[in-house]
Amino acid sequence: MVLSDLLRQSLRNIASHKRRNLFSAFGVTWGVASILLLAGWGVGVQHYMREGMESFGKDIIVVFQGHTSKGIGGYRAGRVILLYPEDVEAIRAYSSKVKVVVPVDQFDLAVSRNNISESRRVRGVVPEARTMRNLTPERGRFFTMDDIENRRRVCVLGSDVRDRYFKPDEDPLGKEIRIGGITFTVVGVLPEKEQMVSMGGRDKDLIFIPFSTGRRLFAGRRPLFCIMARSFRPEQDEETVVEIRKALAIKHNFSPDDEEAVWVIPLTKYTKLATTSARAIGIFVAGVGILTLAIGSVGVTNMMLVSVSERIEEIGIRRATGATKYNIIWQFLTETLLLTVIAGGIGFCLGMALLWLVTRLPIPDYIPTPSVSVNGAVVAIIVMVIAGVLAGITPARRAAAIAAADAITGNVRAWSPKRS
After folding, report:
1. CB atoms < 10 A from the CB of 234, how many?
2. In angstroms, rounded to a whole number, what is the distance separating the alpha carbons of residues 19 and 14?
3. Helix (H) or strand (E) segment spanning residue 283
4. Which of 191, 205, 208, 383 is the most buried (most CB within 10 A)?
5. What is the 3-state secondary structure (H, E, C) of 209-258?
6. CB atoms within 10 A of CB 148
7. Would you kindly state where each structural domain of the chain is located, as residue ranges?
8. Strand, helix or coil at 354?
9. For 361-395, what is each residue's pLDDT tens digit?
């Protein structure tokens, strides 16, 4: 029997019991849809975690103050190491692997406008922070070197700060707002974004001012909130961390091996960890979908075994007219695989439709949005074909084992799912 005849015969047999076949193969339909949905959700989680980490800034090394855990040169352990603007210059002069290094101030100040007055977190930054920290305004501009040199009283608002102090139809650009009792002019507004790393507050809740302005008006000689740096190449981050710690060890007289004296944190490391974790979650949930498909294929096997018991006479006639065992095996394997592909195709369309529907729903920003996974689709197709072949092996072998004489005389025990 040629392939086209085999396919036509298989389609006729499937169509003769459409309702039973569809119900039996529903597990395959739902299994394929589950793989697409769960794999799509896993991809959404990966995108969410990667974007959430990178929204704070890509390839950044953050330096925080600490306290010494080792004594050195007459200095006792437990000494607090504070960071100052001069430390930025020390790092810049010492490290050959640091591409850019900047200071960051942070203040809790009273912020008021119209009848609203409350404490807000204000961060003093330099122009380089725009690219380092993904602080490009949605409207207006960020700070320039002219703002720094002239200590201009200008500010950039986080999206939630804008919503708090300005009406929805009000343009904040050029408007005034009082920060720490001093009038500042709004020159930029940041876009809404979710971030998994905050370190002192999410950008949407912050107000940014020029570093030099904050130093003059609010800081005096108080220490920095932190120092941020970026390597020439992200793969050098571990070496850069060592150089930064050595530069500060020379400046503050602590051991270069004392990791608690200053906390030097390469965010690239945590971004990779988050991405790996998200990928593991994606693999796990896709595995659940594969298991669902495997369980669904059992229903196809049972249905095909029932089909074998119902078609004993047909099998006997085919054997008597010259059909070999392999002909019978191929017939039932083709029928099972075709049924699985039809059910899987329905599941594929169902899964894609559900993914499309979910992406159109008003999902909050803090919930990962599923997206179509090409890998998930490929896995679904491969597993579907494998499941179809495996589901057909037992029925095909049972059918091939029926002898023509036994089938014609009725000396073959019928099979049902309750006995084998």
Report:
1. 17
2. 9
3. helix 267-310
4. 208
5. EEHHHHHHHHHCCCCCCEEEEEECCHHHHHHHHHHHHHHHHHHHCCCCCC
6. 16
7. 3-54+272-409, 62-266
8. helix
9. 877 766 777 877 777 788 888 888 888 888 888 88
Nearest in space to 379 (alpha carbons), one of 297, 295, 298, 287: 287
Contact in structure between 127 and 143 (CB atoms under 8 Å): yes
pLDDT tens for 274-285 read 778 777 877 787
Look-up of token digits 């809790």: 108
Structure-token pair, residue 136: 């490009």
Q: Residue 396 burial (CB < 10 Å; 0-12/13-18/19+)?
A: buried
Helix or strand run (H / E) with residue 390: helix 374-400
Q: Of 381, 398, 316, 284, which Cα lies nearest the Cα of 36?
A: 381
CA 56 to chain centre: 15
CA distance 397 to 394: 5
Task: Let me know: does 347 contact 410? Beta carbons within 8 Å.
Answer: no
Place of tokens 């380089």: 128
Measured CA to CA, the distance from residue 150 to residue 146 in angstroms comes to 6
| CA distances from residue 324 to 7, 250, 311 in whole angstroms, order as listed | 18, 86, 16
* % of the chain with per-residue pLDDT over 90: 39
Q: In this structure, what token pair is assigned to residue 319?
A: 């054997």
Q: What's this model's pTM, rounded to 2 decimal places?
A: 0.70
| pLDDT exceeds 70 at position 228 | yes
108-129 residue pLDDT tens: 999 999 999 999 999 999 999 9
CB 28 within 8 A of CB 300: yes
